[in-house]
Design goal:
Helix content is 48%, strand content 12%. It is α/β, with parallel strands linked by helices and 241 residues long. It has a single domain, classed as Rossmann fold. The longest helix has 15 residues.
């Protein structure tokens, strides 16, 4: 019964390396989203539904219900999979990615969602400036440089496609998430500049889940608070054993 950890944007599976080192369990899988440091399958269209289908396939290959964990866009995908394929899930944990009708996408997301504007931003995005921006957001500098180096043209295209498919994701997915009946942990950064903690509170209430707010932490808790986040996950998993 492995744990499957799903990253967000603009990350790859490498984002989980430090947190994973703090986990006592070794049955941990950290796939990379198609186009995020790995190739996309032939004909793959980078929409939210295509990524959900991909994640379902990854879990089906495990062959047993999993403990599913997601951060950022991984959080949205985890919530959706838990709502449409609960048979694949023993428990789920999600953070810093809302499926909520009241959530308004942050400014950069709205720019990515705008045809022409998003392409211009991506064309101007250079590794050094991206690394500097990630570091300023609280990401450790070594990881920020490595992450920025993996942002190639295909990842940029996938980011634009994913965000443009999700303009109304709260309206489309929230009701399904509210029906989730698997044990849930909402693990959220108190000081996330993109998603206020009230969305964590709303999600925890909606799914009758446990809420853990990481104090003094920005958006990237797997990198900023890896030991604390790993401990919260292991406490949660022990209660589901």
């Amino acid at each position: 019964m492995p744990a499957v950890l799903v990253h967000g944007v603009p990350d790859t599976h490498r984002m989980w390396d430090t947190l994973r080192s703090h986990l006592s369990r070794r049955d941990v899988l950290t796939p990379s989203l198609p186009g995020f440091g790995v190739a996309t399958p032939p004909g793959f269209e980078p929409t939210k539904e295509a990524y959900v289908t991909w994640l379902v396939g990854e879990i089906e290959r495990v062959g047993a219900p999993v403990d599913l964990v997601g951060h950022d866009w991984g959080s949205l995908l985890v919530q959706r999979v838990a709502s449409v394929r609960p048979d694949l899930i023993r428990s789920w944990a999600a953070g810093d990615g809302p499926v909520d009708r009241e959530y308004v996408w942050h400014d950069l997301a709205q720019q990515w969602q705008t045809p022409g504007v998003g392409e211009a931003i991506m064309a101007a995005m250079q590794s050094q400036t991206l690394a500097e921006g990630l570091t300023a957001a609280g990401v450790p500098s070594d990881y920020a440089r490595a992450a920025a180096a993996h942002v190639d043209q295909r990842m940029k295209e996938c980011i634009l496609g994913l965000y443009r498919s999700a303009v109304h994701v709260g309206e489309e997915w929230e009701d399904g998430v509210a029906r989730c009946d698997r044990p849930a942990l909402v693990l959220w950064s108190r000081d996330d500049p993109y998603v206020a903690p009230r969305f964590a509170e709303r999600l925890a209430a909606r799914v009758h889940g446990e809420l853990v707010l990481l104090e003094g932490c920005g958006h990237w808790w797997p990198l900023e608070r890896p030991a604390e986040a790993a401990a919260a996950l292991e406490r949660f998993w022990r209660t589901r054993a």
